[in-house]
Structure formats: structure tokens, C-alpha cells
Specification:
Length: 214
């Protein structure tokens, strides 16, 4: 495993292979990582989305910090240091497969957009920075229960949207995380009207016991 200390300041990296790298220092500021592979990587002191000043002197503008985005990246068996500073970071369609995410007490507000957690004990994680999400067990049973309600809906488009969304949710939960998943209203079907989506999510939560720590 090679050692490295790096700073990415408003950089764009595409399909870069970082596998088996031990980052003794990792600072990403206002950057984009697209299709990069961090498999087997160890982060000792990472600033995944730094909120400090960039090399060129760019600072907080009083409203938002420059965001760092990881898109279509792979974090397989990746080791994150405890209390990793995520900062202003966005993960899109990334895969966390067998990664170590223990002791993450430094939390942040986030929205997960097609992020997959594979073979991770979700019950051992803390997700206080994810408003609207809840950790649920028995996903297959919950989906079967709410689908019986959906079958009575008049709009075929809505029925089809929910069936497709829940089929994907059940498949991934059973294959990757012992029929558990971190679920939000969006998992009921992104194309559903917001009020209908919230109603269905509420029914999905009530179906059986949930494993959310709160």
C-alpha cells in the first residue's frame, strides 16, 4: 500500500485509480471525482469536502461553501478514520461495499442520491445528518404489505412507479444488507406526487418494527 498526502483544489478527476492507497492526508476543496476507484484505500486524516480556504485563496462567500462531488465512485473495503470530516460533500451513485465507517460522530446534512451500502451493518451506524431517512428492517414484508394498498389505486402510472421502486428496494436490501435499508419517501417512487409519496412512506414505516435508533 503506497502512502500519499494530497490536496485537490477545484480539481476534476475522471476514472482515476486510487486503489490500495494510504492517504496520510487528503483534502478536497470544490472538486469533482467521477468514476474514481477508492477500493482498499485508507484515509487517516481526510477532509472529503473541505470547508477551508482553497490554495488560490477562495473562501466561504457567506452563503455556501464550494462543494466537492463524488460521482459513480467505488469505495470497496475503504477505511475511513473515526470522526472523518465530510464537510460540504455530495455522493452520487457511489458504492460503499464492505467499507469501515465506524465512529463517525462528526455528522453533516446530506441527501443520498443512488448511494448503495453493501454488506455493512447499518444498525452500527449513526445517521443524524440525514433528515427524512429512517433505518428499517424487514423490507420485503413492508413492501408486500403496502403493495396490497397500492393495487387499489386508480392511476396505473402510480401503481407502476411504486412497484418498480419497491422491487429495486427489496432486491438491494435482501442481497446486500440482510433485508434492512436506509429509507426515505423518495424510495417509494420519485415520480409520485409528494403528498402520495409521504402517505405511502408513512404506511411503509408502520408496517412492522423499525430498527431506527431514534
Amino acid at each position: 500500500m503506497r502512502d500519499s498526502a494530497v490536496i485537490f483544489d477545484r480539481a476534476r478527476l475522471v476514472n482515476v485509480d486510487f486503489t490500495e492507497t494510504r492517504f496520510v492526508g487528503f483534502n478536497a476543496y470544490g472538486s469533482e471525482f467521477d468514476g474514481c476507484d477508492f477500493s482498499g484505500t485508507a484515509f487517516e486524516q481526510p477532509l472529503m469536502g473541505s470547508t477551508g480556504t482553497g490554495i488560490g485563496g477562495q473562501q466561504w462567500d457567506g452563503a455556501t461553501w464550494p462543494q466537492t462531488v463524488y460521482r459513480n465512485c467505488t469505495f470497496r473495503r475503504t477505511r475511513f478514520a473515526e470522526q472523518t470530516s465530510f464537510g460540504n460533500v455530495r455522493f452520487e451513485r457511489c458504492v460503499f461495499d464492505g467499507s469501515r465507517l465506524r465512529g463517525q460522530t462528526a455528522t453533516f446534512e446530506a441527501e443520498l442520491d443512488y448511494v448503495a451500502f453493501r454488506h455493512i451493518d447499518l444498525r452500527a451506524q449513526r445517521f443524524p445528518g440525514l433528515p427524512g431517512y429512517v433505518l428499517l428492517d424487514r423490507i420485503t414484508e413492508r413492501a408486500r404489505s403496502v403493495l396490497s394498498l397500492v393495487d387499489g389505486w386508480a392511476d396505473e402510472r402510480h401503481r407502476k412507479e411504486v412497484r418498480s421502486a419497491l422491487e429495486f428496494l427489496v432486491g438491494t436490501a435482501r442481497e446486500w444488507n440482510d433485508d434492512q435499508a436506509l429509507v426515505s419517501p423518495a424510495h417509494m417512487g420519485r415520480k409520485l406526487p409528494p403528498a402520495l409519496r409521504e402517505e405511502l412512506f408513512d404506511a411503509f414505516r408502520r408496517t412492522t418494527s423499525d430498527t431506527s435508533p431514534d
